Amino acid sequence: xxNQTINAYKDExxxxxxxxxxxxxxxxxxxxxxxxxxTDLFADIKNIAPEERKNYGLEINAxxxxxxxxxEEASAALENSAESGKKSDLDLSLEGMPMAIGSKHPxxxxxxxxxxxxxxxxxxxxxxxxxxxxxxxxxxLNMPEDHPARDMQDTFxxxxxxxxxxxxxxxxxxxxxxxxxxxxxxxxxPGRVFRKDSDATHSPVFHQVEGLYVDEGVSFADLKQxxxxxxxxxxxxxxxxxxxxxxxxxxxxxxxxxISGLRYNQETGKQEETWIEVLGCGMVDPAVLENCGIxxxxxxxxxxxxxxxxxxxxxxxxxxxxxxxxxxxxFLRQFKAxx
Length: 339
Prior knowledge:
It is a single chain. With 339 residues, this protein is an alpha+beta fold. The protein folds into two domains: 3-84; 106-332, Bira Bifunctional Protein, Domain 2 (BirA Bifunctional Protein, domain 2), CATH 3.30.930.10. 37% of the residues lie in helices and 23% in strands. It has helices spanning 3-15, 21-31, 37-43, 53-84, 106-120, 134-137, 171-180, 220-235, 286-291, 308-316, 329-332, and strands spanning 124-125, 131-133, 157-159, 164-166, 185-194, 205-215, 241-248, 251-265, 270-284, 300-307. It has a seven-stranded mixed β-sheet, sandwiched between helices. Helix 1 packs parallel to helix 4 and helix 5 packs across helix 10. It is extended and about 80 Å long. 25% of the residues are buried.
């Protein structure tokens, strides 16, 4: 396409005028639609010599801006002309109609709070696909095929040969990060995960924030202090924590972490002080580091997994996870983001 042709288009557009809606729509279809002249001009860039593409692109963008300005100008002029011929029925003395002010969903509030807390500790966000292969979801995390640890997670398989699953945890993102980055690594992976659980405290679709820190000299003490800081910021100063030995195939040693808090006793109808389980954690198993190409003799790491729904249920004393997904405005209007 030559500059002469583009200049001719510009002259045509400058001289164009419209007297009705039909003419304005015809103009839009001719120049701005998917089958319009402008689309063809952009598609023709690949046929332009490399050394001329920059100037050609500038010319096309200038033409696009001219077309849009002309279209908006004609539309506004026609609208003003139509309005000037009408008598307004608007009573400016009437009070305005109240508009409801929306708010964030409680899960979004909690997720943003968690991300903010870990960001202060230097953790960056890593995200990945929700459909992953068997290796990233299981094998790389020290759960080889036919290993009994796989029975801990009821899985939604998308296909076989190759085996693709809806991820059961965002640890699959951590695997991708360790494969693509050299330590030190300090990342959190918020996202949606899937398991075949469904009752008052479990959902087949829920949300997690998983954390990973890999570097030289990382210890369980680092893990404990990181999570202690998180709990103080999330639930307030004075919240106590305790760790109980547990088992996860991808960490060794592993632990469940509880916090001090209040829990509603359905039998007595009262709030009672108790320990509440909130997350799982541990030191990254050396086999996982080696699977991801990281020297386990040089580097160590810790990992943790936190359910966002779990955090929200504990923080707001909610007994049924299904309330988060029912879109009942009477429930959702109770929550406001913390400033």
